[in-house]
Amino acid sequence: MAPNSIHWFRKGLRLHDNPALREAVQGAATVRCVYFLDPWFAGSSNVGVNRWRFLLQCLEDLDSNLRKLNSRLFVIRGQPANVFPRLFKEWKISRLTFEYDSEPFGKERDAAIKKLAMEAGVEVIVKISHTLYNLDKIIELNGGQPPLTYKRFQTLISRLDPPEMPVETLSDTLMGSCITPISDDHGEKYGVPSLEELGFDTEGLPSAVWPGGETEALTRIERHLERKAWVANFERPRMNANSLLASPTGLSPYLRFGCLSCRLFYFKLTDLYRKVKKNSSPPLSLYGQLLWREFFYTAATNNPRFDKMEGNPICVRIPWDKNPEALAKWAEAKTGFPWIDAIMTQLRQEGWIHHLARHAVACFLTRGDLWISWEEGMKVFEELLLDADWSVNAGSWMWLSCSSFFQQFFHCYCPVGFGRRTDPNGDFIRRYLPVLRGFPAKFIYDPWNAPESVQAAAKCIIGLHYPKPMVHHAEASRLNIERMKQIYQQLSRYRGLGLLASVPSTNGNGNGGMMAYSPGEQQPGTNNNNNSHLPGVSVSSAAAGNGSGSILFNFDSEEQTGPSSVGQQQQQLHMLPKNPQQKNGKSPWDASVLFLFFLFFFLPHVTFSVSCRVVNNVHLFTTAVSLCLLTANRECKKSFLCLF
């Protein structure tokens, strides 16, 4: 007897490349496609109106596409565990299909539903299609543990077979004789609700910048792939003023909701690359954002505490400050830094910001200026970002706050200089902060430095019409870099993390050597000298804001990351001093020491990388002893000798 099927949509809101949906209709007498809306979740503040609107548009588009196949989408209010037993009986269901969910809470939910289905005599079919790879195979290949460096992850997937090809889009032919029973009151009972029905006030809500749905996603991917020159040369698009605005070829929200198959995107990129490059094999870097997505999914799949600091085995426990007032100013775009406030305004209005803009506001909230936990920022992004994904969102925030995966805490985004280099004229600021529209480009990123006459002419008095800066960036970032340095020094004592060169307390511009204010930019109380010739920093990197005058060398093997293994013990770090000082106000590292280190160590080892794998121990020991003799700093000696 032909089965009666239910296909359960969660993510994967599409008809193309949906293997679980294909299984539902294969040889079936009837099929019903369901989506569950949790009434409690609809009223939660965890998801903002833009995300809800995008989801509802996805569901409307899915229902529209199913109608073309004489089917419909059944939107059901309630919890799946409470509703499924009734549906199994009422619809005489014998087959349930759904897409595999790799996230811990999803796996727990699905295990409970499988048990209910088994008790009801319902066959369950689960297919992987939200990720390129079977994440369990990656973990198995890595000895049962998720890889915690991107390099290791790339090594592992290079040993796997390529991702499976996308399956055929659901069509009349595939539907065959399978039908969907539809009642006359289907719209009333199972229709897609409106925002108003879910309790949202839509008065004054601007039109969607990102329309949801599979139809829009497929249109966008064709536009995206028309950029053949970019694919052919694989040049990363340069950051400029236009980059900051929502692009008609942007795909991230569609991948997050599964309106667009990641496998379809992967193979379309591959085909185009081979056509342009005459059948040469594409590099892994071509799939950059797709693979980062897989990396974070893999890291999170067996870690239910991945979005928490406490109890998270890969996260450093940093003693962040609790400051609700400062957090609110950041989230509500009232920091007094136009670059930060414009980004947060765009996020709240449109539900999307450029990935480097995300870096800027995340750094400002955490290790850069406010010293507030990444968990708080993650929650704001979860509410506002259309493409906020549990694994990727949490992983990115841990990364950007130097809580896991990434250790270069001395790289700090300047809330003035970064924006000024990206959009010198300040058009982005004027678009999202019209109160500052009257300021000339010279002062639009630091309007507090504008003379009173300029502020009056702009009809915006700083402190009255627009807030003053909530922190002194140069001082705050210098203090926070020192805090991070001490944290990593403590970690190095626990496991020999590597070599941490001290952060200078001052340099030519008086800002602690971090990426604070570029040449020509000034905050009250800071010198304005050129910082482009810091020790160990090239002119180009200083201009780009990537130099700090301090260096972190990681001598761990490739398979490890700095904070990751330490997190296994969840060591509690000591509270840090409020006003860290260095002896004599100088770094224990001077240019001569760094020069000798590079001369004796790097030149004989051309293959040396940040994760050093092959080292001549005798030569390294000789070099370490030489350097210890050159410096009177005991901590430096200990750092070197811990390598052995």
Write out the strand line-up for the largest beta sheet, numbering strands in chain order.
3-2-1-4-5
CATH homologous superfamily classification of the domain at 324-490:
DNA Cyclobutane Dipyrimidine Photolyase, subunit A, domain 3
* Mean pLDDT across all amino acids: 80
Q: Tell me the structural class.
A: mainly alpha
What is the count of helical runs? 28
Instruction: State the share of residues found in helices, binned by percent.
Output: 40-55%
Say how many strands there are. 7
The gross shape turns out to be globular
Write up this protein:
With 644 residues, this protein is mostly helical. Among the domains are: 1-129, 3-Layer(aba) Sandwich (Rossmann fold); 131-168 and 215-302, Serine Threonine Protein Phosphatase 5, Tetratricopeptide repeat, CATH 1.25.40.80; 324-490, DNA Cyclobutane Dipyrimidine Photolyase, subunit A, domain 3 (Orthogonal Bundle). Helices cover 43% and strands 5% of the residues. It has 28 helices and 7 strands. The chain has helices at 19-25, 39-42, 49-67, 80-90, 104-119, 135-141, 150-157, 172-175, 186-190, 214-225, 228-233, 252-256, 262-276, 288-300, 324-331, 338-350, 355-368, 374-384, 390-400, 417-422, 427-432, 452-457, 473-495, 539-543, 562-567, 591-602, 617-630, 634-641; strands spanning 4-9, 30-37, 73-77, 95-99, 123-127, 498-500, 552-554. Strands 3-2-1-4-5 form a 5-stranded parallel β-sheet, with helices on both faces. The chain has a two-stranded antiparallel sheet with strand order 6-7. Strand 4 (95-99), helix 5 (104-119) and strand 5 form a beta-alpha-beta unit. Helix 14 (288-300) crosses helix 19. 42% of the residues are buried. Mean pLDDT is 80; it is low at 497-644.
